[in-house]
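Encode chain A's predicted structure.
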Amino acid sequence: MGRAVPRLTLIDRYVLLHFCKSAVVVLALLLALFGFMSLTEELDDVGVGSFTTIDAIAVVILTTPTRIIDLLPVTTLLGSVLGLGTLANHGELLALRAAGLSPWRIARGLLVATVALIVLAMAARATVVPLVERHAQEYRSKTLPQTAIGGAEFWSRSDNRFLRVGGVDFGRIPREIEIYELGVRGRLQRLLQADKADIVDARTWLLHDVDERVLGDDSVAHRRMATLEWQSFLTPEQLATLIAPAHALSVFDLYAYIREMRGSGVDTREYQAMFWQQLALPGALLAMTLLGLPFVLAGTRSRTPGTRVVAGGVAGVGFYLFNQITSHLATLLDLPPAPTALAPSALLLLVAVLAIRRAR
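Encoded structure for chain A:
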């Protein structure tokens, strides 16, 4: 018979409860701060096009799941520091140590909470975030002239040219493309239809399976092409409402997009970096949670609650900045994306494990 999975004891549940309560408070405060900052940015666009204050609030609400996931590493660290710090302030942590409980035994409740948090975060990242970010794009499109998004369809116009996109695969590959060019009198002069397009850069699209029709006074010239390079008239703001940014894609869409673009000449370094960053999230959450334990154990008597919070905040912000720097360096210097994205979490996890072993 297999070995039974150990059940959570009263001590585990007690530690877990303090961690969860502290993490919820920290997350609420951080969300209020960053949500307010995001709202002030969105309010700057109120009055542009048909964008209203209600739309700005809707965008902030819809982008909240992404904001929560981005704040989780700092939240878990501060939740661990505050939760265990409360036990230390009441002498309970010292009593547990005096009773012979090792730091790893005390950390079992934290690990259970972190594993559950990892599962929820990865599930939300793969399902909820792409959906709500798409709706946020629809609201932002109201600030753009001659651009409309309805469901999966995208329409835009520039002078006598119209663009229709029927859908977007993996958040990045336009499908069912129709481009209309009108003559001086508003008469259809040219029609391009393509199955899909690779967005090479902000201005250049590579159309695939192209069907071109040029309408003359008494005739229609027709030809089919495997590919055709088309100079897009979309502004960067319009393009941003059509295709999803890297942070709004699920890990499955990122993988599928990178695989689809392999060999096409399209630069996918940013998406490779984001793909591996998402896979590094479990390690980052685990490392940040465990790091709170040596923070508290190392100064059970000497450190005040305020000192612990400041130290934890500095460590959390430092990790966030280090993670962002390595991500940008991977893109700018063409470094291998996998080790560059995984290194910060792996390094922090190693530091946390060594610190806990030393605390024994």
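The chain has two domains: 10-135+269-359, 146-234.
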